[in-house]
Structure formats: C-alpha cells, structure tokens
Description:
This is adenylate kinase. It comes from Chloropicon primus. There is one protein chain. By secondary structure, the protein is of the alpha/beta class. It has two domains: 12-28 and 39-71 and 128-249, P-loop containing nucleotide triphosphate hydrolases (Rossmann fold), CATH 3.40.50; 76-124, no CATH class. The chain has ten helices and eight strands. Strands 1-8-5-2-4-3 form a six-stranded mixed beta sheet, sandwiched between helices. Strands 6-7 form a two-stranded antiparallel sheet. A hairpin with a 6-residue loop joins strand 6 and strand 7 (177-179). Helix 2 (76-86) crosses helix 3 (89-99) and helix 7 (158-167) crosses helix 9. It is globular, with a radius of gyration of 17 Å. Residues 1-40 have low confidence and may be disordered. Bound molecules: BIS(adenosine)-5'-pentaphosphate. Residues 52, 54-60, 75-77, 80, 97-98, 101-104, 109, 130-133, 137, 164, 167-168, 177-179, 182-183, 208, 234-236, 239 line the site of BIS(adenosine)-5'-pentaphosphate. BIS(adenosine)-5'-pentaphosphate is lined by residues 52, 54-60, 75-77, 80, 97-98, 101-104, 109, 130-133, 137, 164, 167-168, 177-179, 182-183, 208, 234-236, 239.
Amino acid sequence: xxxxxxxxxxxxVRCWGTRVGPAPALSSSRRTQPRGTRNLTRMAxxxxxxxxxxxxxxxxxxxxxxxxxxxxxxxxxxxxxxxVGSGTANGLKAKEFMDAGKLxxxxxxxxxxxxxxxxxxxxxxxxxxxYPRSKDQADALEEANIRPEVFLLLEVPDSILVDxxxxxxxxxxxxxxxxxxxxxxxxxxxxxxxxxxxxxxEEKVVPRLETHNSNVAAILDSYSDVLVRINGDQAKDKxxxxxxxxxxxx
Length: 250
Ligand code: AP5
C-alpha cells in the first residue's frame, strides 16, 4: 500500500568531518559508484530533492535510491563535514554553526552546493539531500535555474527522532549508516570501526529540530507544486517502497 501522497501536482554523497571517531578512509564521492557498475533502475525523473527533520532517514533512503537509480547523491551536511574535516576557513566557520544545530551561513553553503551540482557526474541526474533549507537557498537555486522534478518530504514525529539520532553510527570505510537498535552492524568487525557524529547527542538534537521546524514551511511553499509527503515513521524498506511508488507515479 502506498502511503505517500501528493499535495498538489505535485544521489547523498555522504562525507564526514564533524565526528568523534577516526578519520574516514574514503572521500565524499565514495558512495557514487562508477556508472555501468550498478544495477540501474530507469525512472522518468532525474532531479530529486529529499528533505526532512534530523534523523528522519534522508541519508538512509538516499543510500538505497542512489544505489538503484542513476542519480548522483549530494548531501549538504556531508559536503560541510568534508569542509570541516579539511580544516579550511569555511570549514572552521561552518563547524561553529553545526555544533550549535544552526544553519551554516549562505555565503558558505550556496556556492558549495551549486558548484557540486555543476560537476560532470551530477549533470545527468541528482538527488539533493538536505538542501535547500531556507527560502534564501531555494531562491538562489531558482536564480540558477535549478529546480527539482520532485521534492520528497520524510515525515517523522519529533518523539521518534531523538532515539534515531543518539543510536546512529556510521561506518567510515563504506559510508553506510547504522543504528544500534534499528539497523545494527552485520559483524563484529564492522561494529568495532563504527563512529558517531559529534552532533548526534540528545542535547544537540533539540536545536537541530528547532532549526528544521522553523524553516521547513518556507521551503515547502517554494516546492508545493512538486511536493510528495512520505511517512518516514515506518520500517526503512517500507519507506523506500513508498518513495518508489511515488516516483513511478510521476
Ligand atoms: P545533515 O548532515 O544534513 O543533518 P540532518 O539534517 O540533521 O540529518 P541527519 O543526517 O542527521 O539525518 P538523516 O535524515 O540523514 O537520517 P539517517 O538516514 O542518517 O546536516 C548537519 C548540519 O549541517 C545541520 O545541522 C546544519 O548545521 C548544517 N547544514 C546542512 N545542510 C545545510 C543547509 N542546507 N544550510 C545550512 N546549513 C546546513 O537516519 C538516522 C538514524 O535513523 C540512522 O541510525 C538510521 O539507521 C535510522 N533510521 C533511518 N530510517 C529509519 C527507519 N525507517 N526506521 C528506523 N530507523 C531508521
């Protein structure tokens, strides 16, 4: 059964940076497998945005979507963590805002994402994760003539999100997202190398949620014509199935 619905008519290259564990071995593009090596599923859309509160499952769904569809996954959070990890001036400034659970200023984020969208691997199709997060960012994309064919919003009650945040763990070698309870590692070997993001604490999730909740309405206004709401409070495979159904029906 499809629980996704349209309101009107309506790929995350995860990287790292802000973390408590060791540095990853792979770069931000490691999840984007070379074209031709994947079992690609054809779909009619090739410009997809995915949004939702912290830990609503954006990255988890993007792992599955980018693995099965010919879309380059671009995550604003991952691009920022890579910048932080590189220790650049922008990275140092971004870290202050990320640690506070606030939006990183546009002068850092807007150009960073636009440049990434213009790289060759993104020209054929992209899955933009966690961007835009404000009206200004949406307007900047409009000005650059960048518009999604579909805007997916993962809806999960706030009460569920804290548990997801504090239990999240990441594999620095593969980039895969785990959860101690809901998606535990497959082996002891993987379990031993998992790391936790430094903003994944009960304390830091509160301002992150507030930031999301105070900005989301403006974004939805910008994309109301392509908005598809997905119930993210279900098993991840069910969420994925609903997204597939929604994409198929476009
Ligand atoms: P970002 O990295 O984008 O963080 P976020 O939006 O808070 O989202 P998360 O990465 O925390 O969660 P997710 O939705 O990807 O969930 P996941 O799939 O991992 O941004 C970080 C910071 O960067 C921001 O706070 C901000 O400071 C800055 N920033 C980012 N974008 C910006 C922008 N555009 N402008 C300005 N600043 C920006 O899942 C979470 C956990 O739940 C995992 O453990 C997973 O296994 C589990 N899980 C997933 N799905 C399910 C399910 N269906 N059932 C049970 N468990 C599940």
